[in-house]
Amino acid sequence: MDADLDTPPLMDGNIPPLAEWDALWAAWDAVTLAMVPPEMLHDRPIDLRHKCLFYIGHIPTFLDMLLSKAVGGAPTEPAWFWEIFERGIDPHVDDPDHCHNHSVVPTADADWPTLTAVLAFRDGVRARLRALYDALARNKQALTRNVARTLVMTFEHEAFHVETLLYMLIQKAGCGPTRAPPGITRPPWEALAVQWAAAPKPADAKVHVPAGTVVLGHMDSEAEDFVVAEDGGRMDVHAKPGHTFGWDNESPPRAVHVRAFTAEWRCVTNAEFAEYWRAASPAAVPSAAPLPATHPLATPASWVVDADGAIHVRTLFGPVPLATAAHWPALASADALAAYAASRGGRLPDEAELRRFLDLYDVGYDGGANAGMRNWHPVPGTMGLAAHGGRGANGGVWEWTRTPFAGHAGLVPTALFTGYSADFFDGKHSVAVRPTLPCVCAFLICESFILLLQLGASYATLPRLGRRTLRNFYQHNYPYPWIGARVVYDD
Q: Which SUPFAM superfamilies match (predicted)?
């Protein structure tokens, strides 16, 4: 392709240029081919997810399927990859046999395709995408809203999976086969720990957030990608310059009034959670019987506790002592962090409250936040300093809310990625908080598959996913993703 044809006409807004795809593919290949050794391809670092090889095949399959939907054409060979790599699993944490619609995969390792075959398929799909960009640049393919949405959705899908695979691999880092990030020097942990301990802290740990109105979401309905012609046929609508495409659950915009509340400047840290956990959890006693992994007082999946009871925090370079990661945000399930918040007399924020707080005080990626792999680990938060008007960053984590993931008025379910949002809300689930319990404070009591929203970004979230309206969602008791929380209080 000619250099001047890399960016087709109208390719602005948040449509990724081909150069960004190249950078994303480099990141994906580094994670899947350099950090996953051959002997780990058929491992499942997390029981609730597929084996590593599945994701190497899933990413190009998803792209291939959506390209066929958007512009037509047969599957890239071998076409049967669509059958096993179409969609991953997200089973109920409490009942893994209960899962949404997903691909049926081979049960025996020998029945899976080889890595060589999967990579050849990947290269064919990437060539197909390059051909589409070339056709767009030469005006042989119209840049319609549907084509533009496909490019955004497939790019962001792959970017999400970079993070998903990394939080899977971290479970085997330093004490298993996961390799460290390629070309990245192991951080000088002891020197950094001294620096982090000496960093300035807010004069007051809390801030009063005044009442106000927050607009959640933006105008981007997939229903507007097409119009119906007089003969009943479907007509594609051309993309408008500067439009921002998103996922179905981001649209349409909704104005929400937020009452005044008080928030902790910084997310719950590992040191704070460790103090609470040691006092409340029988899991903190080395001789005690282990709690179920999803119990709010179980050892967080982001930690490793040795036989002497010493806490280490997982990193992609291997576990580090708690003292090193003391000021990092604690990564744990919503249930665990809700219990901690209740022990402080607070709670988790709802979506609108957290959005209002972040709108006021979060500086985002362009302001220096720890996202986009600036570091390959969390860092201490920086919010709350008077010198910066309180503005700063949370240290490189998503943040839990107490808001269930559900539909809203005007939402049009996506036809490109069928079931992306709709498979995960049905109006049958609700959230209730049990009154304070001895030693445990409060548990978040939910249906087994209730999903809660998260906002923000982690240190491994690509900057393109830092869109203000983007929402993430996980099960309330899922302990693995890189999500922290800040405590808020009713005024």
A: C-type lectin-like
Name the CATH topology of 189-217+252-406+420-490.
Answer: paralog of FGE (formylglycine-generating enzyme) (3.90.1580)
Across the chain, mean pLDDT equals 88
- Tokens for 18, please give them: 């081909």
* DSSP letter, residue 209: E
CB 160 within 8 A of CB 457: no
Strand order in the sheet with 398-404: 472-475, 451-456, 398-404, 483-484
Domain ranges in the chain? 18-170, 189-217+252-406+420-490
Containing 475, the helix (H) or strand (E) segment is: strand 472-475
pLDDT of residue 49: 81
Q: What is the DSSP string of 345-413?
A: T-B---HHHHHHHHHHHB-TGGGT-S-TTSSSS-----TT-GGGTT-B--SS-EEEEEEEP---TT---
Answer whether 379's CB lies under 8 Å from 396's CB. yes
Q: Is residue 473 classed as helix, strand or coil in its secondary structure?
A: strand
Distance between CA atoms of 355 and 250, rounded to whole angstroms?
Answer: 13
Q: Is the dihedral angle over the CA atoms 228, 230, 232, 234 positive or is it negative?
A: negative
Query: Could you tell me which of 351, 346, 344, 353 has the C-alpha nearest to residue 452?
Result: 351
- 401/444 Cα distance (integer angstroms): 12
CA distance to 216, 236, 252, per residue, from 412 (Å): 16, 17, 9
- Cis check: omega of the bond before 37, within 30 degrees of 0: no
Tens digits of residue pLDDT in 195-230: 999 999 999 999 999 999 999 999 999 999 998 777
Cis geometry, peptide bond prior to residue 329 (ω within 30 degrees of 0): no
DSSP H stretches of helix in 72-144: 81-85, 115-137
DSSP conformational letter for 468: T
Distances (CA, A) of 10 to 1, 15, 70, 219, 238: 18, 9, 18, 19, 10
pLDDT tens digits for range 325-372: 999 999 999 999 999 999 999 999 999 999 999 999 999 999 999 999
- Cβ-contact 247, 414 below 8 angstroms: yes
Would you say 340 and 421 are in contact if contact means Cβ atoms under 8 Å apart? no
Residue type (1 letter), 343: S
CB atoms near residue 293 (< 10 Å): 17
d(CA 169, CA 378): 16
CATH class, 18-170 region: mainly alpha
Cα–Cα distances in Å, from 91 out to 46, 49, 265, 412, 423?
12, 8, 34, 24, 12
63, 105, 249, 423 from 246: Cα distances, Å:
16, 30, 8, 18
- Distance between CA 189 and CA 192 in Å, rounded? 5
Q: Which residues pair with 108 in a beta bridge?
A: none
